[in-house]
Write a structure and sequence with these properties.
Layout: E1 3-8, H1 16-24, E2 29-32, E3 41-45, E4 48-52, E5 65-68, E6 73-74, H2 76-88, E7 95-99, E8 103-104, H3 107-116, H4 127-135, H5 148-170, H6 177-191, E9 195-196, H7 198-207, E10 212-215, H8 239-244, E11 253-260, E12 263-265, H9 278-286, E13 299-301, E14 303-304, H10 305-315, E15 319-323, E16 333-342, E17 345-347, E18 360-367, H11 384-397, E19 401-405, E20 413-415
Parallel strand pairs: 1-10, 1-11, 2-5, 2-10, 5-7, 6-8, 7-9, 11-15, 14-16, 15-19
Antiparallel strand pairs: 3-4, 12-13, 16-17, 16-18, 19-20
Bound molecules: guanosine-5'-diphosphate, 6-O-phosphoryl inosine monophosphate and magnesium ion.
Length: 416
């Protein structure tokens, strides 16, 4: 029995969805532990593409249990839409449970994110404002939907308050209490069957010997505590979030860091190895680097080993999944960032998060490969230069690369 945590090693979109999908076969339960529908996790099965924002990626494996943990912020409308979309595609869905302690994203959270999220370049899904309300103890927990009278009263009080803010500060039109109440009445009715204490549920499942996969959203460099603050999300995608976001602590847990063979970032904030040339164009075009949630073009650049060593330290990665190696095919020379120069001083490891914004990357060059690798099914079949690239990263970080992505499809993965 093995439990897994699949965690993004950079700024999100590393290909976590595909790795989660691969590993789901080896577990009984898939649980999301943080974030919300700012995530976009892609799985390509037999040429058909699925993108999950809030539902755990395991949802397409109908014999599994999927859990939305207490650490998430949940937009109930989005959840209903995602369930409906799967049904409309004729997909049988896994069993789903929703934590009573997850925080609801309320309509004003999305409005406020739209107004205030510009500097960071948020997904405007209301994530930050919903987490703010949780931390300030004014939030709505999912379980409150089950106590309707108290919910309606609290909703009235908060709408009165928020209307004052919206009007006075932002010149925004007022929210309509009656309309929102009706909307949430429907959510309460439709979602009540999924709501429970998921910590107890997961704990009991573990006692029965069931294996759990913890599906991270976003990435360690977007972590509110360990990322490139303030250009981060408002949750803990890194390892600590697994425990606070689910309320269980498995004794045996393999922590898998997902890293792209190059780097990307969507939204604002520092990105030392970012490129704006024909290489980044190659990466964006060949890697289809456009956001799975907002459609924004992703910023692209070389792999940054300084940051990978740092996020390996923060999470204690046991192994890595290196995705999108096929996207590098065709480039004559590859560069990897092995150090930073900050204020005239050279560093091999990240001494301070503040260095990221000022870092000039120090690169090493590695030979590229021209052969198509999408059909390779074992490490030995990869071209020599390709294997050298993988082994170079392993040596530099000191963690084995156990999974290698050679294409978007479910089967386009090499397991070593
Ligand atoms: P996530 O948010 O970490 O789950 O990643 P996204 O789904 O947002 O973005 C990853 C994109 O890369 C998706 O379009 C995947 O289908 C695709 N992808 C994943 N692994 C590979 C791979 O090994 N090769 C290629 N070419 N595409 C991949
Ligand atoms: P997955 O799970 C990439 C980025 C946003 C913005 C910052 C804050 O698909 O990897 P937020 O809406 O969370 O307050 O925005 O974080 N961001 C992501 N970038 N992948 C994601 O999720 C992201 N979720 C949020 O672009 O820069
Ligand atoms: Mg994504």
């Amino acid at each position: 029995m093995k439990n897994y945590a699949v965690i993004g090693a950079f700024w999100g979109d590393e290909g976590k969805g595909k790795i989660v999908d691969y590993l789901t076969g080896q577990v009984d339960i898939v649980v999301r532990y943080q974030g919300g529908n700012n995530a976009g996790h892609t799985v390509v099965v037999a040429g058909k593409k699925f993108v999950f924002h809030l539902l755990p990626t395991g949802i397409i494996h109908m014999d599994k249990l999927c859990v939305i943990g207490n650490g998430l912020v949940v937009d109930p409308g989005v959840l209903m839409e995602e369930i409906k979309a799967l049904e409309q595609q004729g997909m049988a869905m896994a069993e789903l449970k929703l934590s009573e302690s997850a925080t609801l994203i309320m309509p004003w959270h999305k409005i406020l994110d739209g107004i205030e999220g510009g500097k960071v370049g948020t997904t405007k899904r209301g994530i930050g404002p919903a987490y703010e309300s949780k931390i300030s103890r004014r939030g709505f927990k999912v379980g409150e939907l089950l106590a309707w009278e108290a919910f309606s009263k609290k909703l009235k009080e908060q709408i009165d308050e928020v209307n004052w803010l919206l009007e006075q500060k932002y010149g925004h039109s007022k929210l309509d209490y009656g309309q929102i109440l009706t909307e949430f009445e429907l959510y309460a009715e439709k979602l009540s069957g999924y709501i429970c204490n998921t910590s107890v549920l997961l704990h009991d499942a573990m006692k029965e010997g069931k294996a759990i996969l913890f599906e991270g959203a976003q990435g360690t460099l977007l972590d509110i505590d360990h990322g490139t603050y303030p250009f981060v999300t408002s949750s803990n995608p890194s390892i600590g979030g697994v425990f606070t976001g689910t309320g269980v602590r498995p004794k045996v847990l393999r922590v898998i860091g997902v890293v792209k063979a190059y780097s990307t970032r969507v939204g604002n904030g520092p990105f030392p190895t970012e490129l704006n040339d024909e290489i980044s164009e190659h990466l964006r075009a060949k890697g289809h680097e456009y956001g799975a949630t907002t459609g924004r073009p992703r910023r692209c650049g070389w792999l940054d080993l300084v940051l990978l060593r740092y996020t390996t330290m923060v999470n204690g990665f046991d192994e890595l999944a290196l995705t999108k190696l096929d996207v590098l095919t065709g480039l004559k020379r590859l560069k990897v960032c092995t150090g930073y120069e900050v204020d005239g001083k050279k560093y091999q490891q990240l001494d301070s998060l503040l260095h990221i914004a000022k870092a000039k990357p120090i690169y090493e060059e590695i030979e590229g490969w021209q052969e198509d690798i999408a059909r390779c099914t074992s490490f030995d079949q990869l071209p020599k230069q390709c294997r050298a690239y993988v082994e170079y990263i392993e040596r530099a970080v000191g963690v084995p690369i156990r999974y290698i992505g050679v294409g978007p499809g479910r089967r386009e993965i090499i397991v070593r």
